[in-house]
UniProtKB/TrEMBL annotation:
EC numbers: 3.4.11.18
Record Pfam families: Peptidase_M24
This protein's UniProt keywords: Aminopeptidase, Hydrolase, Metal-binding, Protease, Transit peptide
Residues holding a divalent metal cation 1: D223, D234, E360
Protein name: Methionine aminopeptidase
Binding site for a divalent metal cation 2: D234, H297, E329, E360
Species, as recorded: Rhamnella rubrinervis
PROSITE patterns listed in its UniProt record: MAP_1 (PS00680)
Length: 376
């Protein structure tokens, strides 16, 4: 059953004989609900018709009580999630928890390649308050950076197979980026030691490449950002390694669809909060959680700037503007949306060890929609 964001109308019936319908918790004093056809809200005639259609529903009040309640979008989403969890018969194969491998030394970048300003400090840069809106020249440079990032990500995906280490993927990505005359944006950002993020299984994001070999059945998000001609292009994708469980495959598929639905609402004048609404609606249809801690962001000459893009339901003010560029990058989980972070201060895992997936595109706002700049 699909989730609809608008308020829904439900009818609760409690028989005096002690029979109760299937229920779920709400703020109402009554939580007993049965599968009776519901009348549209405010339609008194339909309500009378409902009573006449079911003889057991007496107007005397002696045999039953009829409760009417309007559910909020959040309450209905929670109900749908619980129902899907109960109905699901697919079990995810239990995998050993992710362990940190050995992290090799930072790779070198030739002196002739221009570097972003944060490279010379280990401090995490502040999120810029500047909304990055580009003229025609800036858009052309953004497109070039994003096109390179997409090609690098596509190449990185071809390397994913059992026994390959995430460190080997990092080395290959690093080489391809510098060969193109660009700088790998993550390298040195707030002290990040590698040129790409590799997040495996329960790792939500910001995984540091190391000596761990990929295993058959793993999923891995590879997050690539390049700095080319003064502009950053940012993208990521979750890849399958070998034979992946069907339930995890579905998670990955739905996560990509969540990103696509978020992008679909974008255009000049659209509100930012629509993105989180669309993503949440789709994730909740499958009983998945939307991580709130990590967000999308403005991107351009600055790596991270306003607007901050929330992927969950929110009331964040503001509207999109033609010529603006930012990322949409939802993280969707099969379980907890809370995270734990390793002592490296980067690697963030789901608190309950459940699988997570993420997809990301950089988009350009246009008058009538959004152009995906990192589409390969």
């Amino acid at each position: 059953m699909g989730f609809v964001g608008s308020l829904s109308h439900a009818v609760s019936v409690q028989l005096s004989t002690g029979f109760h319908g299937h229920g779920f918790p709400t703020s109402s004093k009554s939580s007993q609900f049965v599968g009776i056809p519901t009348a549209p809200a405010g339609n008194a005639t339909a309500g009378l018709s409902l009573l006449s259609s079911f003889p057991c529903l007496s107007r005397s009040g002696k045999r039953l009580v009829v409760f009417s309640k309007r559910l909020s979008g959040l309450e209905e989403a929670m109900k749908i999630r619980r129902e899907r969890e109960l109905q699901s018969t697919t079990k995810v194969r239990k995998r050993p928890p992710l362990r940190r491998g050995k992290v090799s030394p930072r790779l070198l970048v030739p002196d002739h390649i221009p570097k972003p300003p944060y490279v010379d400090t280990s401090e995490l840069p502040e999120i810029s308050s500047e909304y990055q809106i580009h003229d025609s020249e800036g858009i052309a440079r953004m497109k070039a950076a994003c096109e390179l990032a997409a090609r690098v990500l596509n190449y990185a995906g071809t390397l994913v197979r059992p026994s390959v280490t995430t460190n080997e993927i990092d080395k290959a990505v690093h080489r391809m980026i510098i060969d193109a005359g660009a700088y790998p944006s993550p390298l040195g950002y707030g002290g990040f030691p590698k040129s790409v993020c590799t997040s495996v299984n329960e790792c939500m994001c910001h995984g540091i490449p190391d000596s761990r070999q990929l295993q058959d059945g793993d999923v891995i998000n590879i997050d690539v950002t390049v700095y080319l001609n003064g502009y950053h292009g940012d993208t990521s994708k979750t890849f399958f390694c070998g034979n992946v469980d069907g339930a995890v495959k579905r998670l990955v598929k739905v996560t990509e669809e969540c990103m696509e639905r978020g992008i679909a609402v974008c255009k000049d004048g659209a509100t930012f909060k629509k993105i989180g609404k669309r993503i949440s609606e789709h994730a909740e249809r499958y009983g998945y959680g939307v991580v709130e801690r990590f967000v999308g962001h403005g991107v351009g000459t600055v790596f991270h700037s306003e607007p901050i893009i929330l992927h969950h339901r929110n009331d964040k003010p503001g509207c999109m503007v033609e010529g603006q560029t930012f990322t949409i990058e939802p993280i969707i989980t099969m379980g907890s949306i809370e995270c734990v972070t390793w002592p490296d201060n980067w690697t963030s895992l789901t608190a309950d060890g459940s699988p997570a997936a993420q997809f990301e595109h950089t988009i350009l706002i246009t008058r009538n929609g959004a152009e995906i700049l990192t589409k390969c």
